[in-house]
Write a structure and sequence with these properties.
alpha+beta, globular
Length: 619
């Protein structure tokens, strides 16, 4: 597997660069474009692109252009089968200096709706081939599920492995520390083997929203059984995966006010072996059990075994986690009401007590680290209470829950990450507030307008920050920025659907395209997707996973255990002179994580649905 990964990485790198010495590149969405959608490629160059080399008029002379556009290139959209130019357009100047480049242009060919295979030629360079088609997103959600199945902890029939059968031993509990509790299951969070309620709940909720809001549920296939083995069980695979996550969340909240927040800690990072080979000793023998952290609502940590030091987190309450439990249990009970009534009742019985516990101890619960400074520093919590209330309101239409959602939602009109433009690691998680989106769908006109306005404010903040950036990406380059990018794209899509206002439609397309290859590096940030693309991760264990993505260089250079890459040896050096860097072999930029993967799944489901609608209208 390792040899295959090295080989595919080298192939991807060669495709991304085409050849050393190249100075201009056309970046595209490598999956392609829906016929009736915004379609913009981006030309970037390390050289000044002038009228002398960019376009020609009659008799070899430049055409007469408006003064404001003089020197912008004429690009051609070419049918890959016939070689004929089907559209010509003029590039729009963008701020190349933002990425340390000399020239940048946005190449808009949105008016082209004919399905087919195309490429772009401009300024002497050619783009990769891409497709325009209503079916380009078909099967994309199911492909993302591959990563979730690979990340299953405990019994993983997809990979044919078994791991972590001794989980776990309670820590930080006032009376039960050292007791064993059965919390097997769930998913490993990322390339490591830690498990967090914070990310699992966000992943589960976005998967549930994917299924719940889909108008045409035929897009969800049934190719795997509940245990992830190949075969059909009469239930869509996405529901099987949701059930796997909900079952683990239920284990982590075994009784009212008894909640656990994570399994294992950063001592896991002693080695990056496969889960079934995990041999870390947390005090119960090598590979014989991991700590399960009780939620106290107070700052917590365990002594560093190397030096005895304690580095407390900044926990202030339970609401950020209790709110996530409540929203997941409420929506989960609805999804399984007819599929598995007994399981649905278990979830329903836990939903409101979790919400009440959130109100009893408002504040944030952060994760714990022991030997390193890396933990999930979630500081906000009103968004989690709002999401729970908004979920109850969506399901019951009870005015009580509308009032609850309204109260908590107005305390954070715009996610602080979007407003401030910076955050510590997961500080303002989960980066996008689905509670606003649910409240904006209210039948009450006043509530609907208030939360629609909140959504517009947040999106306008991102758009303003993007300014004339070539890729129209105004999301701050924090750790795991890709998750915020696709969250914002989904938010823009939701906003247009609710309000009818298309002001952010181009930004939505740009943010989606960013993930799928229209970025300075030319990489799709989803492992092995689309097929044949230049993908950030292509090894078998990471297929379908969305990676963290580019990050501020100063932040990246502080990461422990990441070898620094000198510019003269960095094959991506030409693209590393802007506000963020991307390194293929760094966990800080290229580690896939379950929550971001499910954010992406949600967005792809909306695009797959839109593609089906466009195909139907064509008929």
């Amino acid at each position: 597997m390792k040899q295959r990964y090295i080989l595919t990485s080298l192939v991807a790198l060669a495709m991304a660069l085409s050849s050393y010495g190249q100075s201009s590149w056309v970046r595209i969405n490598q999956l392609g474009y829906l016929p009736k959608s915004i379609k913009v490629a981006v030309l970037i160059s390390a050289e000044e692109i002038t009228s002398d080399i960019s376009f020609r008029g009659s008799n070899g002379q430049p055409p007469v252009l408006p003064a404001s556009q003089y020197g912008t290139p004429i690009f051609s959209l070419i049918d890959a089968k016939t070689g004929k130019t089907v559209f010509s357009g003029q590039g729009k100047i963008a701020d190349a200096a933002y990425w340390g480049l000399k020239s940048a242009f946005r190449l808009d060919f949105s008016s082209v709706q004919a399905e087919g295979d195309y490429y772009i030629e401009v300024a002497g360079v050619k783009s990769p081939q891409f497709k325009i088609g209503a079916d380009i997103y078909e099967g994309s959600v199911d492909f993302m599920l591959n990563y979730m199945r690979r990340q299953r902890c405990g019994q993983n029939n997809f990979l044919g492995t078994v791991c972590h059968q001794h989980d776990g031993y309670i820590v930080e509990h006032p009376t039960r520390t050292g007791e064993r509790i059965d919390v097997r299951g769930g998913w490993h969070d990322a390339d490591d083997k830690l498990q967090y309620v914070t990310t699992t709940a966000s992943a589960v909720y976005h998967m549930m929203l994917t299924y719940y809001q889909a108008k045409d549920k035929s897009i969800f296939k049934d190719n795997y059984r509940a245990d992830a083995s190949p075969g059909s069980n009469g239930i869509p695979d996405i529901l099987d995966e949701i059930r796997w996550g909900l079952d683990w969340l239920s284990r982590m909240n075994p009784a009212p006010k008894e909640m656990y927040n994570q399994i294992a800690d950063d001592r896991d990072h002693a080695g990056y072996g496969l889960p079934q080979d995990d041999n870390v000793d947390y005090g119960w023998g090598p590979g014989k059990g991991r700590p399960v952290y009780f939620i106290t609502g107070e700052p917590q940590d365990l002594p560093n075994p190397r030096n005895g030091e304690i580095q407390l987190n900044r926990t202030t309450g339970v609401a950020s986690t209790a709110g996530k439990f409540a929203s997941c249990f409420a929506l989960g009970a609805e999804l399984f009401r007819n599929v598995d009534p007994a399981f649905a009742k278990v979830l329903s019985d836990k939903a409101e007590p979790a919400y009440e516990f959130a109100l009893e101890k408002p504040g944030n619960t952060q994760t714990v680290c022991v030997v390193s400074p890396y933990f999930y520093e979630e500081d906000n919590y009103v968004d989690d209470i709002e999401l729970a209330a908004a979920t109850f309101y969506t399901l019951t239409k009870d005015p009580k829950w509308r009032a609850e959602g309204n109260y908590w939602g107005q305390l954070e009109p715009v996610n602080p990450l979007w407003a401030f433009g910076f955050a510590r690691h997961y500080q303002f998680y989960p980066f996008v507030n689905q509670g606003h989106h649910l409240m904006a769908k209210s039948e009450d006109a006043v509530t609907r307008k208030k939360f629609t306005d909140f959504m517009r404010q947040g999106l306008q903040t991102i758009r303003n920050r993007a300014a004339n950036e070539p890729f129209m990406n105004g999301v701050p380059y924090i750790w795991c920025a890709n998750f915020a990018v696709i969250g914002a794209a989904s938010y823009a899509h939701q906003y247009k659907d609710i309000s009818g206002d298309s002001s952010f439609e181009e930004m939505e397309a740009a943010l989606r395209d960013w993930i799928l290859g229209c970025n300075p590096w030319g990489y799709s940030f989803i492992g092995g997707f689309p097929k044949g693309a230049v993908s950030s991760r292509m090894d078998d264990t990471r297929l379908g996973g969305l990676v963290d993505g580019p990050i501020d260089e100063g932040w990246h250079d502080t990461f422990l255990g990441v070898p620094k890459v000198s510019r003269d040896k960095d094959p991506l050096a030409a693209f590393q002179n802007g506000p963020a860097v991307f390194h293929e072999h760094s966990y800080g930029t290229n580690e896939p994580v379950i929550d971001g993967t499910c954010y992406m799944m949600y967005h792809l489901s909306m695009m797959e649905q839109l593609g089906k609608e466009q195909a139907e209208k064509k008929k």
